[in-house]
Specification:
Elements lengths: L1 H16 L3 E4 L23 E3 L2 H8 L2 H7 L2 H4 L21 H14 L17
Antiparallel strand pairs: 1-2
């Protein structure tokens, strides 16, 4: 896990410097790895807000981020159900953990919808 933990600050800094980045969940630690979700100590939270889906995907596909993503199986078990969820928020809104749980539950139960969707099945922003 050392390489993963040591990669958090550089990847978070890269996100914050990326075009379209608005906000990310973090505690005094500078990240959100100590935030509990689903009462599961092995589920790590990473939540952010971006100006557009394109700006998020540009960051996700960047070399700095992909260097860590490509090694994820060294540190994490392969999930057996969706673990990532996207949804549109209004300008100025900072989503919370309860909202994230509700959106992920919705995705797991209903599949991708306008309310909650996977990165592969993205919906256009509401007008």
């Amino acid at each position: 896990m050392r390489d993963f933990v040591e990669g958090l600050d550089p990847v978070n800094a890269l996100a914050e410097q990326s075009e379209g980045f608005i906000w990310r969940l973090q505690t005094e630690s500078g990240n959100a790895t100590d935030v509990s979700i689903y009462n599961d100590p092995f589920f790590i939270v990473n939540m952010s807000v971006w100006a557009s889906l394109e700006s998020l995907l540009d960051f996700v596909r960047s070399d700095g981020h992909m260097a860590i993503v490509k090694r994820r199986r060294e540190w994490f078990e392969r999930p057996d159900k969706p673990y990532q969820v996207l949804w549109w928020v209004t300008a100025g809104h900072q989503p919370g953990i309860e909202e994230a749980e509700e959106r992920l539950d919705h995705l797991r139960e209903h599949g991708s919808t306008q309310h909650a969707f996977s990165p592969r099945d993205a919906f256009a922003a509401p007008s």
